Amino acid sequence: MCGAEVFALPESVQRVARFLQDAGHPHAPQMLGGAARTSQEAADQLGILVGQVAKSVIFKHKESGGHVLVVAAGDRRVDEKKVTALVGKIGRADADFVKAQTGFSIGGVSPVAHLQTPITLIDSSLARFEVLWAAAGHPNAVYPMSLEQLQNLTQAPVVELAQAVMPDAS
User: Fold this and answer.
1) With helix as H, strand as E and coil as C, how does 51-101 read?
2) How many CB atoms lie within 10 A of CB 143?
3) Which residues, listed in sequence order, are joined to residue 123 by a DSSP beta bridge?
4) In Å, what is the CA distance from 55 to each residue of 44, 102, 170?
5) Are 118 and 156 in contact, with CB atoms under 8 Å apart?
6) 98-135 residue pLDDT tens
7) Which DSSP category does 140 fall into?
């Protein structure tokens, strides 16, 4: 990336692109043909498994008033009790809170380049995949990385945070 292509992107994607470039990440954000507001939409557009989508889930940290970012596999639910055990009491975050803390709209929250520094945790279920894809600050923007790269970019621990997956009842 030479820098010129960053300016054709939405401002929030430019912020992520600069962060990735400054961190030496080998992949720049790319714009998809349509919105990928859900893990399934992103997986469908990228032709990947939904679990390869590294979704950013935001909670409100009750003690500090700041935010907690959990990066989890798109095919898993975050177990809020496990998050609470690690960081203290959390609550649901509405769209306004997410935008104010991260600078991103729901559906495009990147794991990096937040306006306010989050408490960040990465779910260990992402270790199943060699390549992960995350939102890049906009519902149409994504970028690839490995779990190791995600951990290096976020400086976050990898811990078990997903709820147990129930076997298919059919």
Assistant:
1) HHEEEEEEEEECCCCCEEEEEEECCCCECHHHHHHHHCCEEECCHHHHHHH
2) 25
3) 159
4) 14, 14, 27
5) no
6) 999 999 999 999 999 999 999 999 999 999 999 999 99
7) T
